Amino acid sequence: MEQITIKEVAKLCGVGVSTVSRAINNHPDINPETKQKILDTIREYNYVPNNSARNLKRTDSNTIAVVIKEISNSYWGVMLHVLEREVRDRKYCLVLQNVADDEDEVELALQLEKEKKVKGIIFLGGMYNYDESRLRMLRVPYVISGSGKTVPEDTGTYPKSALVTTDTEIESQSMVDYLCSCGHKRIAFITSGDEGLGRCHLNGYKRSLEKNGLEYDEKLIIRLKPGKRIYTIENGYNCTCELLKSGVDFSCIYAISDTLAVGACRAVIDSGKRVPEDYCVAGADGQDIAEYYHPSITTLKYPRVEIALQSVRTLFDLINRKKVVKRQILGGTLIERESTRKL
Amino acid sequence: MEQITIKEVAKLCGVGVSTVSRAINNHPDINPETKQKILDTIREYNYVPNNSARNLKRTDSNTIAVVIKEISNSYWGVMLHVLEREVRDRKYCLVLQNVADDEDEVELALQLEKEKKVKGIIFLGGMYNYDESRLRMLRVPYVISGSGKTVPEDTGTYPKSALVTTDTEIESQSMVDYLCSCGHKRIAFITSGDEGLGRCHLNGYKRSLEKNGLEYDEKLIIRLKPGKRIYTIENGYNCTCELLKSGVDFSCIYAISDTLAVGACRAVIDSGKRVPEDYCVAGADGQDIAEYYHPSITTLKYPRVEIALQSVRTLFDLINRKKVVKRQILGGTLIERESTRKL
DNA sequence: TTGTAGGCGTTATCAC
DNA sequence: GTGATAACGCCTACAA
Question: Which residue, among B85, B341, B292, B273, has the nearest Cα to A267 in the 3D structure?
Answer without folding.
Answer: B292
